[in-house]
Amino acid sequence: MGSIRSKIAGLGYYVPETVVSNKELEKLMDTTDAWIQERTGIVERRYGTPHLETTTTIGARAAKNAIEMAGIQAEEIDFIIFATLSPDYYFPGCGVLLQRELKISGSQVGALDIRNQCSGFIYGLSIADQFIRTGQYKNILLVGAEMHSMGLDYTTRGRNVTVIFGDGAGAVVLQPTGEEEPGVINTVLHADGTYAEELAFINPGCHGGYHQQQTDLGYPEGGYGGLFLTQKMWEEQLIFPSMNGQLVFKTAIQKFPEVIGESLHNAGLSIGDVDMLIPHQANLRISQFVQKKLGLPDEKVWNNIQRYGNTTAASIPIALCEAFEAGAIRRNDLVCLAAFGSGFTWGAALMRWAI
Ligand code: COA
Predict the structure, then answer these.
(1) Catalytic residue among 94, 118, 321, 336
(2) Which mutation among 21, 25, 39, 290 tests ligand 1's pocket best, with the greatest number of atoms within 8 A of CB?
(3) How far apart are CA 318 and CA 23, in angstroms?
(4) CATH for 4-178, among 3.10.310.10, 1.10.10.10, 3.40.50.2300, 3.40.47.10?
């Protein structure tokens, strides 16, 4: 038997129905539609319905679409990979909750959770690709889903983060194919924890103030109780994501072209060979900068952040699915996915489109 590679055999997405415009955010915090559009390109985003939708349930809706397109039954999934930074629970992760939601028998499936934020989908794709190449699994369900709306600061203090993020879910089913057939060519992954706190959701956590020698977070004297969340964190509202926007922007516009170039180089290809670039939807200005730097025309870069905001682990599969449904990606096209985000982590994946 010849060697195998993985291919995307089905894909799907789901975004919650509630549309939240910039104008609506103006009512909650000191911001303007003009500011948000000028700096980020975002016009509106979706918010899930509290109590009725969770990261797992919206992930399940995307997953069902992907499974249907792959032409298989949920029961045939033999491995689940779930990427999110906004899980339903601190633990267990969304992987097992999705397995339960999809009613896949636990005796035939494993579930793995990925915590790589905006690069979560690329990391997940890389893991799925390796598992398929070794022959261990035949139908891997990879989901990226976020319910950011449940954990944002809707006061002016949180405006630089809150206006950017939205809820959504995307999923793909990966299957084996022959080495000569269209499929995943390579993936490249990188990480640099030097900047871990520059884009982070730190509390609640088990850090105990260690990383920043922060002993004034209200931890009980010599005790262990309340290590996750202290009264002080709650009172001072140290319980939301924070971001050094300028550093993230500067680093992102450097790392995106670098990692795309690395992936193409490893495959013996060049930017002129790319038919479609799907950049993680961090900020339209970042995507535009990267597009210009790489010299790609508009029709070879897919952006939808205008309508959904940054949906972190979900942004690439949602964009990929939309591009495919719009007929902008066809069989054998060279598709490049690239991401950068919290960690910092970044990566790229290159594939010949197989559907
Ligand atoms: N509305 C209005 N004003 C805002 C605002 C908002 N939503 N958010 C921040 N501001 C204000 C700041 O308070 C600051 O005011 P000051 O000058 O009076 O102090 C001013 O705008 C500039 O803030 P700054 O953070 O320097 O803005 P910026 O030009 O860097 O733009 C981002 C902010 C977040 C849009 C930009 O840094 C960015 O997009 N970074 C990358 C973010 C990203 O991609 N994150 C996801 C990574 S995967």
Answers:
(1) 118
(2) 39
(3) 24
(4) 3.40.47.10
Determine contact, residues 277/353, Cβ cutoff 8 Å.
no
Atom of ligand 1 nearest to the CA of 160: 8
Q: Residue ranges per domain, the chain?
A: 4-178, 184-197+242-352, 202-235
**The two domains 4-178 and 184-197+242-352 share their CATH topology (first three levels equal):** yes
Dist. CA 164 → ligand 1 center (Å)? 10
What pTM was computed for the model? 0.97
Ligand 1 centre distance from Cα of residue 159 (Å): 8
List pLDDT tens digits, range 104-161.
998 889 999 999 999 999 999 999 999 999 999 999 999 999 999 999 999 999 999 9
**Ligand 1 first shell, C-beta below 6 A:** 31, 35-36, 39-40, 118, 159-160, 163-164, 199, 243, 245-246, 248-249, 252, 282-283, 286, 310, 341
DSSP assignment letter at 69: H
Q: Is 118 noted as a catalytic residue in this protein?
A: yes
Active-site residue flag, 265? no
Q: What fold characterizes domain 184-197+242-352?
A: Peroxisomal Thiolase; Chain A, domain 1 (3.40.47)
Are the beta carbons of 262 and 188 closer than 8 angstroms? yes
Residues 6+ apart with CB under 8 A from 278: 302, 316, 319, 320, 323, 335, 336, 337, 338
Instruction: Tell me how far apart the alpha carbons of residues 185 and 267 are, in angstroms, rounded to a whole number.
Output: 7
Q: CA 237, CA 139: separation in Å to the nearest integer?
A: 43
